[in-house]
Amino acid sequence: MRSVQTGLRELERDILKATRDVLRLNGWYAIRHQQGLGSHPGMSDLTAVRGGRTIYIECKTARGTMRPAQLIFRAEITK
């Protein structure tokens, strides 16, 4: 998917929204997770469900990297 840019700087929130929109257009039930106090550490930005299949999506800009908690979440969820 092409990065969404505002001026010269891409914004993660725009990438997230575009990803969610594409998923929904393709029949996925897409849920955006807001991180905050009490959230599961490292939880993905989006969860999408369709036809009994669930995928977890972490959106990053081209410069973004996953935090240690996100790497742990990915490892745990793929077990």
Descriptive account of the structure:
With 79 residues, the protein is of the alpha+beta class. It contains 2 helices and 5 strands, in the order E-E-H-E-E-E-H. A hairpin with a 2-residue loop joins strand 4 (46-50) and strand 5 (53-57). The model has no long low-confidence stretch (mean pLDDT 89).
Structural key phrases:
79 residues; alpha+beta; 2 helices; 5 strands
Q: Would you spell out the secondary-structure blueprint of this structure?
A:
Elements: E1 5-6, E2 9-10, H1 12-25, E3 29-32, E4 46-50, E5 53-57, H2 68-77
Antiparallel strand pairs: 1-2, 3-4, 4-5
Helix content: 25-40%
Number of DSSP E strands = 5
Q: What is the gyration radius calculated from CA atoms? A: 13 Å
Average pLDDT score: 89
- Cα(first) to Cα(last) distance is 27 Å
DSSP strand content: 15-25%
Biggest beta-sheet profile: 3 strands, antiparallel
Large-scale geometry = globular
Low-confidence stretches: none
The helix-strand sequence is EEHEEEH
Output the number of helix runs. Answer: 2
Strand order of the largest sheet: 3-4-5
